[in-house]
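Hello,

Our lab assistant flagged a job as stuck in the queue for most of the afternoon. It eventually completed. Since we weren't sure the result was trustworthy after the delay, we are filing this so someone can double-check. Below is the sequence as submitted and the structure that was eventually returned. Let us know if re-running is recommended.
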Amino acid sequence: MSRVKEDNDLVVPGDVLFNGSNLYANQGTYEANDKIYSESIGVVRYSGQGVEVVPMSGRYIPEEGDVVIGEVSRVSYSRWTIDLNSPYDGTLGISDATEEYVDLDEDDLTDFYDVGDTVVVKIDSVSESMDVDLSMKDRRCKKLSGGRVIEIAPAKVPRVIGKGGTMVQQVNDRTDCNIIVGQNGQVWIKGDHANLAVRAIKKIEREAHTQGLTDRMAEWLDDQLEKEGDR
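-- returned structure --
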């Protein structure tokens, strides 16, 4: 009874994920001959007593605990509405947005976050009716200044990040950029070689299903930087 593939591994149809029968075959998988197989191209996810394969396509569906990048789309009396690049918007209430005391009759909420602001937020909870509550009470959460946001397929986020953050870190280091990858497929990039970083992220997205990508990306980035230096 053992894992053949680990969390966030990329798999194709027919790959063995788990050798044994003491896990449930969940979405994107099937069981045969005391083994669990992948039935699609995607990313492996273990949860509780089951294993699933998240397909390499589709829109982002909010999940509790995810850290995502969104845009403020509305400011109301006591809360902000955040576009999460999802069928479901998120709501950020005052108590989850700041530790400061806010007088709703005197203070202007746009002094904190205004329409059009880009923010990193954490999904605090998701109800059965898909009401999404957000929080800024995480060290990773903040308002982003400058830079640009690009979009990738949410299912390819684990590959862009890499195991232990190795993939995105090497793009960070080689391009002198600050890169934040949201679980909803929104990627914020700011730095000296932002255009190269964008191309790198898109290349990783396109080739996410291939083997040896981390080493190939390192070589590709070095080659691109050398070409830029020759100009």
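-- support follow-up --
The delay was a queue issue, not a problem with the job. The result is valid. The chain has a mean pLDDT of 91. The two ends are 56 Å apart (CA to CA).
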